[in-house]
Amino acid sequence: MSLTNMKKVVGLTGILAVVSLTACSNQPEAPESAAQNVQTDQESAEADQETVTDDLSKQQGEISQPETMAIESGSQDKAIELYVNVLRNYLSEGKTDFAVSFIDLDDDSTREMVVFFGESQADGGYLFTIKNGEAVQVVAEGSDFFGQYGGFAYKEKGNIFVAENESVTESQTSTQVFYYAMENGKAVCKDVTQSITQFDSDESRFYVNDLEVDSEELNRIAEKYGLSEMSAVGYSDGVRVRNEQMDMVYNAYHKDEGHSATGKEDTLESLVGEYDYVSDNGTGRLTIQKTSHGYDISDYDSESSYRFLADSSNIENMEEDRIYIKYPEQVFSDGEAVFGYYILEYDADGIDVYYGKSAFEEAEFLYHAAKKAENADSERTADELLDLFIDGSISAANSEDPASAFYITDLNMDTGEWDSYSVGEKADLDNDGENELIICGPYGGIYFDARDNKVYEFAAGEGNALSLSYVYYNGAVWILYSNSMNAGYEAYHMEKYEGADNLAAEINFGEELTDPDNAESETKYTLNGAVVSYDEYSEFCSKIFATEVSTN
What we know:
By secondary structure, the chain is of the alpha+beta class.
């Protein structure tokens, strides 16, 4: 199990599954009238997917199928009018806050529309296309939306889109990947893969269309459809619809028509980077970062304070050379909020930032932020980057989530308290010939790697059940996670890296009572899932723990 997956398991153990899925199979085509009766089909599906419906209804209420609108077949100028009418139906039903994106799924003469109502685990995308001069919702057997966490992936102009669904029980985690094609206005499932990992044994089983396979076959399916090269569409990078004003929707549809970009992504992508400015508190920092969930926009007035931490969902409008942000500066317990209004006006020289308390029209100039040169850090070595992090000059981020960027000043440093951190030594922890930085602290602290002119957190202790250290074994450094907090039970997980972004090998070992309720029962010893003798286990452990380096 990778570090990322381990963290997910630790955080989700004991939580019941939020999403239950129906089997994926190629179904006979529904009659033409089915597209106009999605509500009836949905009510039937809800009987089989009660968990999904209950959670989803909390997010957005019951979603009924908007009335389809007819136009003359082939009239592409009116395609957006059909989609807008669908959105207006949503508004008339009281759904006043959702996001819209347009994609080119099947390379025909019109683009598809995707509507998102949030980005919780139960929030997927509602897909619409134009068929026979009508805007129809694309549904699959047993499901009228696709994906989780407000997004799904698709192959641009390839007529393949993917819905990934993760579910967790007390004993296992399961990830299903559904591969769909759009045929005659309906979603037809071509293949479904599943990975199931048991918490107690850390063993994984793989399935393709309900047949058990090895991991290579699972990967072959992903390669067949080009999963790693697919584009993402989601709630955070769509156009937010909050009222009857549809100007941004029209603009998004016509922006680079025939391509997936909505226009917001293009602009934000061109502005990605770090900008410096001077404020009353000293040197400030404005950053625009691309993350797995969209784009983050952050304004740090100093090392210890910020004006706003926003993402693309806070953008109310974009026009010409301005980005308009509505930011909740204070939220009260009754749900009422006080908003601030920011305008980012950009050109080749940088970004001018304006602020208003009540409306954009009253915004006043705050500062000019100049973009840092892209090659400013081009010659910095790994040691230099780590030193800059120690000095508080640059931030670090988790490799799996760039949005988690933080500075060393965000840690509780050198206070002498049990949960404080301190700067440790540098050592080659990932076997790439370059040093990593150890920040000693609770549960083994945090390990940092420097690459691509950035600093990344790649290992961290996360409680007594996931305590961090490292060992030397078979001529290499291994990261060790230990769980020895319960009497009669010990579990250990080792990871060997060849570069901090390349997990090369894993080892699991541990011991536990055959009867957890009887301290006098025999002890079972395991190594990589296999039961071994005490002598074999003891010999292996002696090699590991003789070289263990604690970083508490």
